[in-house]
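Team,

Forwarding the record for the chain on the shared tracking sheet. I've put the sequence and predicted structure together so nobody has to dig through attachments.
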Amino acid sequence: MVSKGRLLVVTSDVPFVEGGHLMIARSTVQALRQAGYEADLVLTPQNRFGRQFQAYLANWLTDVGQDGLGREIDQVISFRFPSYAVRHPRHVCWLNHRLREYYDLWEMLASQLSRRALLKEKVRRLLIHALDRYLLKKNVTKLYAQSQTIQARLQRWGKIPSEVLYPPPPPRNYRLEKYDNFIFSVSRLHPLKRLHLLVEAFKFVRHPEVKAVIIGQGPEKSRLEQLIKDLGLEKRFQILSGVDEKTVMDHYARCRAVFFAPFQEDYGFVTGEAFACSKPVLTTTDSGGPSELVEDGRSGFTTPPDPQAIAAKIDLLAEDQSLAERLGRHAQAFIATLSWEKTVSQLVLS
C-alpha cells in the first residue's frame, strides 16, 4: 500500500501521568494509519511548574522536519502546552489546553501565593500569554479547539481565532450489557475532577438500592475515602485503583449512568466513552466540555454543582431503568456522529 504521507502527532508529557490527551493523541495516530498515512507519536517535555520556559525552548528546538531515515515529514499535528511550539511549515494544532494556571485557573493560583511570589508569577504569566499568542497565531497553519470551552478561552485571553473539532471516543471495546443500579465514575482523583460532589450527593439520595463505583487514582483518594466514611456511606461506595482497561469497560457496560462533573474541563473524553456504551451522563452546568456534549433531559442531565440537585437526578435514574435506556439511546446516536474518518479529513491539510 502506497503511503499518503508521513505525519507526526506531537504532544507534551509528564512522567507517570496518563492523561486523556495522550489517549486522544494515540487514537489520532491510529486513525491516521488506518487512513493510509505513515504516522507516529512524539512526546515532548512539559516541565514542572516554575520551569515552563525551558519546556517551551525544548519544544521549539525539537526536530520534526525529518524522520530517523532522513525522509521529510509532511505535516505535524500538535496538542497541548507547550507542544505547539514545535516548528513545521505545515502545522495543525488541535488544542487541548494551554497552561491553565495562567488562564482560567489564575485566580485559584494567585490566592495561594505570597505577595513576592505573586509578583513573580504575574510577570511569568504576561510572558507566557505573549508566547502563546505568537505561537498559536504565527507558528501554526491551522488551529482547532477540542471544545467550545477551549475556543472561548482562546478568544478571552489572546483573541485567537479557532474552529471547534470534537474528538471522537478513543477506539476501545465499547458495548452495552445492562443497566445495573449503580452510578459509575472514572477519573483521575484530583480536586478539579470534583468526585466529592458524587459522594456528598449520596447523603440526599432516597433510593435505598442504588450504589456508586469510582475508578481512579490520585491525590484525592484518601480524602474521598475519609468523606465516604464520615458520611456513613461505606456500603454504597467502592473506589478501585490500578485496574485494567477491561475492568473499566465492564463498568461502563453495566452501570445505570456515568457521573462526570469536573470543573471547567477542556473536553473530557469520559462523556464520549459513556455515550458510546449507551449510558447517560450526569454533569453540571460549570463542567465545561462535558456540559457541551450532554443535552439535558435527552442524553443525560445537567444540574448546578449542588449535591441535592445531583441526588434528585440519581433518584430519577435509580427508580426508572427505562429512563436511563432512553437517554442512553440518544447519547449513543449523538456520539455516533463523531467519527475518526471525518476527524482525519479535517486534521490533514490538503
